[in-house]
Design a protein that fits this description.
Layout: E1 8-12, E2 19-23, H1 35-55, H2 62-69, H3 73-79, H4 83-107, H5 113-130, H6 133-144, H7 146-169, H8 179-199, H9 205-220
Antiparallel strand pairs: 1-2
Protein backbone atom coordinates (compact mmCIF):
# COMPACT_ATOMS: atom_id res chain seq x y z
CA UNK A 1 0.00 0.00 0.00
CA UNK A 2 0.90 3.64 -0.29
CA UNK A 3 0.86 5.21 3.13
CA UNK A 4 -0.15 8.85 3.13
CA UNK A 5 1.83 11.71 1.69
CA UNK A 6 5.44 11.44 0.65
CA UNK A 7 7.72 13.12 3.20
CA UNK A 8 10.47 15.47 2.09
CA UNK A 9 14.04 14.39 2.85
CA UNK A 10 17.05 16.58 2.17
CA UNK A 11 20.03 15.54 0.05
CA UNK A 12 22.84 17.63 -1.39
CA UNK A 13 22.92 18.93 -4.93
CA UNK A 14 26.17 18.46 -6.86
CA UNK A 15 28.76 21.21 -6.71
CA UNK A 16 26.33 23.97 -5.82
CA UNK A 17 26.14 23.20 -2.12
CA UNK A 18 22.39 23.65 -2.12
CA UNK A 19 19.84 21.13 -0.95
CA UNK A 20 17.26 19.39 -3.07
CA UNK A 21 14.04 17.95 -1.72
CA UNK A 22 13.15 14.39 -2.61
CA UNK A 23 10.25 12.19 -1.67
CA UNK A 24 11.25 9.62 0.94
CA UNK A 25 11.66 6.34 -1.01
CA UNK A 26 9.98 4.42 1.80
CA UNK A 27 6.77 6.36 1.15
CA UNK A 28 6.77 6.19 -2.63
CA UNK A 29 4.47 4.05 -4.74
CA UNK A 30 5.15 0.43 -3.82
CA UNK A 31 5.71 -2.22 -6.45
CA UNK A 32 3.24 -5.13 -6.34
CA UNK A 33 4.78 -8.59 -6.16
CA UNK A 34 2.99 -10.16 -9.11
CA UNK A 35 2.38 -9.24 -12.74
CA UNK A 36 -1.34 -9.30 -12.08
CA UNK A 37 -0.89 -6.92 -9.17
CA UNK A 38 1.19 -4.58 -11.29
CA UNK A 39 -1.48 -4.57 -14.01
CA UNK A 40 -4.21 -3.86 -11.45
CA UNK A 41 -2.26 -1.05 -9.82
CA UNK A 42 -1.44 0.43 -13.22
CA UNK A 43 -5.10 0.29 -14.23
CA UNK A 44 -6.09 2.14 -11.06
CA UNK A 45 -3.42 4.80 -11.57
CA UNK A 46 -4.38 5.31 -15.22
CA UNK A 47 -8.06 5.53 -14.32
CA UNK A 48 -7.25 7.99 -11.54
CA UNK A 49 -5.28 10.16 -13.96
CA UNK A 50 -8.24 10.31 -16.31
CA UNK A 51 -10.76 10.85 -13.50
CA UNK A 52 -8.81 13.52 -11.62
CA UNK A 53 -7.85 15.15 -14.92
CA UNK A 54 -11.51 15.46 -15.95
CA UNK A 55 -13.24 16.17 -12.64
CA UNK A 56 -10.57 17.29 -10.21
CA UNK A 57 -9.76 15.70 -6.89
CA UNK A 58 -12.83 16.70 -4.91
CA UNK A 59 -15.40 15.67 -7.53
CA UNK A 60 -13.82 12.29 -8.18
CA UNK A 61 -14.62 9.22 -6.11
CA UNK A 62 -13.00 5.87 -5.42
CA UNK A 63 -16.06 4.12 -6.86
CA UNK A 64 -15.89 6.06 -10.13
CA UNK A 65 -12.17 5.36 -10.41
CA UNK A 66 -12.56 1.62 -9.85
CA UNK A 67 -15.40 1.47 -12.36
CA UNK A 68 -13.25 3.26 -14.92
CA UNK A 69 -10.35 0.92 -14.11
CA UNK A 70 -12.53 -2.17 -14.34
CA UNK A 71 -11.42 -3.46 -10.95
CA UNK A 72 -13.29 -4.44 -7.79
CA UNK A 73 -13.58 -1.94 -4.97
CA UNK A 74 -11.72 -4.33 -2.70
CA UNK A 75 -8.77 -4.33 -5.10
CA UNK A 76 -8.45 -0.60 -4.63
CA UNK A 77 -7.79 -1.00 -0.92
CA UNK A 78 -5.17 -3.65 -1.59
CA UNK A 79 -2.97 -0.94 -3.06
CA UNK A 80 -4.23 2.37 -1.65
CA UNK A 81 -5.62 3.34 1.73
CA UNK A 82 -7.71 6.30 0.56
CA UNK A 83 -8.40 8.69 -2.28
CA UNK A 84 -5.76 11.00 -0.83
CA UNK A 85 -3.19 8.20 -0.82
CA UNK A 86 -4.03 7.40 -4.44
CA UNK A 87 -3.66 11.03 -5.44
CA UNK A 88 -0.27 11.22 -3.71
CA UNK A 89 0.84 8.05 -5.48
CA UNK A 90 -0.41 9.43 -8.79
CA UNK A 91 1.59 12.66 -8.43
CA UNK A 92 4.72 10.61 -7.72
CA UNK A 93 3.92 8.30 -10.62
CA UNK A 94 3.34 11.09 -13.14
CA UNK A 95 6.45 12.94 -12.03
CA UNK A 96 8.43 9.75 -12.54
CA UNK A 97 6.86 9.13 -15.93
CA UNK A 98 7.90 12.58 -17.13
CA UNK A 99 11.44 11.93 -15.91
CA UNK A 100 11.54 8.49 -17.52
CA UNK A 101 10.15 9.84 -20.81
CA UNK A 102 12.84 12.51 -21.07
CA UNK A 103 15.82 10.57 -19.67
CA UNK A 104 16.45 8.32 -22.71
CA UNK A 105 16.50 11.37 -24.98
CA UNK A 106 19.23 12.93 -22.86
CA UNK A 107 21.17 9.68 -22.52
CA UNK A 108 21.20 9.10 -26.24
CA UNK A 109 22.05 12.69 -27.19
CA UNK A 110 25.56 13.33 -28.51
CA UNK A 111 25.41 17.10 -29.05
CA UNK A 112 26.03 20.04 -26.74
CA UNK A 113 24.15 20.54 -23.50
CA UNK A 114 22.10 23.33 -25.11
CA UNK A 115 21.09 21.02 -27.94
CA UNK A 116 20.30 18.30 -25.42
CA UNK A 117 18.04 20.66 -23.46
CA UNK A 118 16.18 21.40 -26.69
CA UNK A 119 15.70 17.69 -27.30
CA UNK A 120 14.52 17.25 -23.71
CA UNK A 121 12.03 20.08 -24.17
CA UNK A 122 10.62 18.49 -27.31
CA UNK A 123 10.21 15.19 -25.45
CA UNK A 124 8.41 16.94 -22.60
CA UNK A 125 6.11 18.79 -25.01
CA UNK A 126 5.18 15.49 -26.60
CA UNK A 127 4.44 14.01 -23.18
CA UNK A 128 2.32 17.03 -22.23
CA UNK A 129 0.33 16.77 -25.45
CA UNK A 130 -0.36 13.08 -24.83
CA UNK A 131 -1.07 13.53 -21.10
CA UNK A 132 -2.82 16.87 -20.76
CA UNK A 133 -4.24 15.82 -17.40
CA UNK A 134 -0.84 16.26 -15.79
CA UNK A 135 -1.35 20.02 -15.55
CA UNK A 136 -4.57 19.82 -13.56
CA UNK A 137 -3.21 17.05 -11.35
CA UNK A 138 0.07 18.81 -10.54
CA UNK A 139 -1.78 22.10 -9.92
CA UNK A 140 -4.15 20.41 -7.46
CA UNK A 141 -1.25 18.66 -5.79
CA UNK A 142 -0.20 21.99 -4.27
CA UNK A 143 -3.21 21.65 -1.96
CA UNK A 144 -3.84 17.89 -1.83
CA UNK A 145 -0.25 16.56 -1.73
CA UNK A 146 1.96 19.63 -1.15
CA UNK A 147 5.12 17.69 -0.31
CA UNK A 148 4.97 15.77 -3.56
CA UNK A 149 4.03 18.91 -5.50
CA UNK A 150 7.13 20.63 -4.14
CA UNK A 151 9.35 17.59 -4.76
CA UNK A 152 8.17 17.39 -8.38
CA UNK A 153 9.44 20.87 -9.16
CA UNK A 154 12.50 20.89 -6.90
CA UNK A 155 13.79 17.60 -8.29
CA UNK A 156 13.12 18.60 -11.89
CA UNK A 157 15.08 21.83 -11.45
CA UNK A 158 17.87 19.95 -9.66
CA UNK A 159 18.28 17.60 -12.62
CA UNK A 160 18.49 20.55 -15.01
CA UNK A 161 21.08 22.28 -12.82
CA UNK A 162 23.14 19.12 -12.54
CA UNK A 163 23.25 18.80 -16.33
CA UNK A 164 24.22 22.44 -16.78
CA UNK A 165 26.91 22.30 -14.11
CA UNK A 166 28.39 19.17 -15.67
CA UNK A 167 28.46 20.93 -19.05
CA UNK A 168 30.19 23.94 -17.48
CA UNK A 169 32.82 21.63 -15.98
CA UNK A 170 33.42 20.24 -19.49
CA UNK A 171 33.91 23.77 -20.83
CA UNK A 172 30.66 23.90 -22.81
CA UNK A 173 29.22 26.92 -20.97
CA UNK A 174 31.04 30.19 -20.38
CA UNK A 175 29.45 31.02 -17.03
CA UNK A 176 28.66 28.63 -14.20
CA UNK A 177 24.87 28.03 -14.10
CA UNK A 178 22.98 28.68 -10.90
CA UNK A 179 19.72 27.53 -9.36
CA UNK A 180 17.74 30.51 -10.64
CA UNK A 181 18.69 29.68 -14.23
CA UNK A 182 17.66 26.04 -13.77
CA UNK A 183 14.26 27.14 -12.44
CA UNK A 184 13.92 29.63 -15.30
CA UNK A 185 14.48 26.86 -17.85
CA UNK A 186 11.99 24.61 -16.06
CA UNK A 187 9.43 27.42 -15.93
CA UNK A 188 9.84 28.04 -19.65
CA UNK A 189 9.32 24.35 -20.35
CA UNK A 190 6.23 24.13 -18.14
CA UNK A 191 4.49 27.04 -19.83
CA UNK A 192 5.48 25.96 -23.32
CA UNK A 193 3.90 22.60 -22.47
CA UNK A 194 0.75 24.38 -21.34
CA UNK A 195 0.58 26.54 -24.48
CA UNK A 196 1.58 24.04 -27.16
CA UNK A 197 0.87 20.73 -25.44
CA UNK A 198 -2.46 21.40 -23.73
CA UNK A 199 -3.96 24.39 -25.56
CA UNK A 200 -2.68 23.70 -29.07
CA UNK A 201 -2.86 20.19 -30.57
CA UNK A 202 -1.40 21.08 -33.96
CA UNK A 203 1.74 23.25 -33.78
CA UNK A 204 5.00 21.53 -34.75
CA UNK A 205 6.61 20.77 -31.39
CA UNK A 206 10.07 20.42 -32.92
CA UNK A 207 9.85 24.02 -34.13
CA UNK A 208 8.66 25.20 -30.71
CA UNK A 209 11.66 23.49 -29.13
CA UNK A 210 14.04 24.98 -31.70
CA UNK A 211 12.68 28.47 -31.10
CA UNK A 212 13.06 28.16 -27.34
CA UNK A 213 16.48 26.64 -27.76
CA UNK A 214 17.71 29.63 -29.77
CA UNK A 215 16.90 31.84 -26.80
CA UNK A 216 18.63 29.40 -24.46
CA UNK A 217 21.69 29.40 -26.70
CA UNK A 218 21.86 33.20 -26.62
CA UNK A 219 21.46 33.29 -22.85
CA UNK A 220 23.79 30.49 -21.77
CA UNK A 221 25.88 29.47 -24.72
CA UNK A 222 27.86 32.64 -25.22
Amino acid sequence: MVRGRGRIDTVKMPRGGKSVDAVNPALQLREPRTDRGRRTQRAILDAAAAEFGEKGFHESSIVSITIRAGVALGSFYTYFESKEALFTALVQDMSGRVRDHVAPVLTGHSGTVIEAEGAALKAFLEFARDHKEIYRIIDEAEFVAPDDWRAHYVNTAARILERLQAAHARGELAAEPDEAQAWAIMGMNVFLGLRFGVMDPATDLAEVARSANRMLQSGLGG
